[in-house]
Design goal:
mainly alpha, 102 residues, 3 strands, 49% helix, 3-stranded antiparallel β-sheet
């Protein structure tokens, strides 16, 4: 018998793919630590060529996130800049790469 996953609570942390499937009745935010755009940038630097879509999605899914309330997420975004939305990781990563190239 499968058990229902526990709802998210502030302070929970783990891989994005593990937490995103849990119930989120508090409408909390999954905040990447460090920012997903920073992780992708570093991965591409180490790769020495553009990341593929499967690579971007694997990094997104395996990267560490922390559950924070929306007001804390806003404060973090104000401090370090808006991060990539994991639901649109590939498209937003392409935009971020273009901005970096300018």
């Amino acid at each position: 018998m499968a058990t229902e996953p526990l709802p998210l609570k502030v302070g929970d942390s783990g891989a994005y793919a593990e937490l995103v499937v849990r119930p989120n009745p508090g409408n909390f935010t999954l905040q990447y630590i460090p920012a997903l755009v920073a992780l992708l940038t570093r991965a591409e630097e180490l790769n020495r060529e553009p990341l593929t879509r499967p690579q971007v999605e694997a990094i997104r899914d395996g990267a560490s996130v922390m559950v924070v309330p929306p007001d804390m997420a806003k404060a973090l975004d104000a401090k370090r800049g808006n991060d990539i939305d994991p639901k649109h990781a590939w498209d937003q990563w392409q935009e971020a790469r273009q901005q970096r190239a300018k």
